[in-house]
Amino acid sequence: MEAPETPLLGSSRQAGHGTFEPSLGLSSGEAAQRRAEDGPNQLDPPPKEGLLLIFVRQTQSVVFLLTSLAAAVSYSCGDRHKAMILITVVVFVCLLNTFGEYTSQDAGSALCKMGKLQTRRAIA
Fold first, then answer.
1. How far apart are CA 23 and CA 118, in angstroms?
2. How distant, in Å, are the alpha carbons of 69, 72, 74, 97 from that of 62?
């Protein structure tokens, strides 16, 4: 019985890549041939976001907007000291969150550098 063709697996027989059976996998030679033709079996990393874009997104949060509104109300009521403290805290927290999010974009590549994935050969 032949395995049904799926969009993910495709039909390796029609593409001229030998005889691939999903239950058995590829032989070492076929895997090496496909790796040479198609490249490594990995996804391209997502593009990094810039610091400014991340900071702008941080300033669009509800907490930032409410605290900024509270600072504006405090300033308009004459309590300039409280308004300056609120704005300072909000900007400081936004900068910390921006820096943390920017540096965490490399988490996937850092995990890959820790070690290669080791697999065991299935016994048929």
1. 20
2. 10, 15, 18, 14
- 109, 44 in Cβ contact below 8 A? no
Q: Are 95 and 55 in contact (CB under 8 A)?
A: yes
Please state the separation of Cα 100 from the chain's center in Å: 14
Where exactly are the structural domains of the chain?
9-41, 51-111
* pLDDT tens series, the chain, 124 aa: 555 555 454 444 445 555 667 777 777 888 888 888 888 877 777 788 899 999 999 999 999 999 999 999 999 999 999 999 999 999 999 999 999 999 888 777 777 777 766 666 666 5
The reported pTM is: 0.56
DSSP structural state of residue 61: S
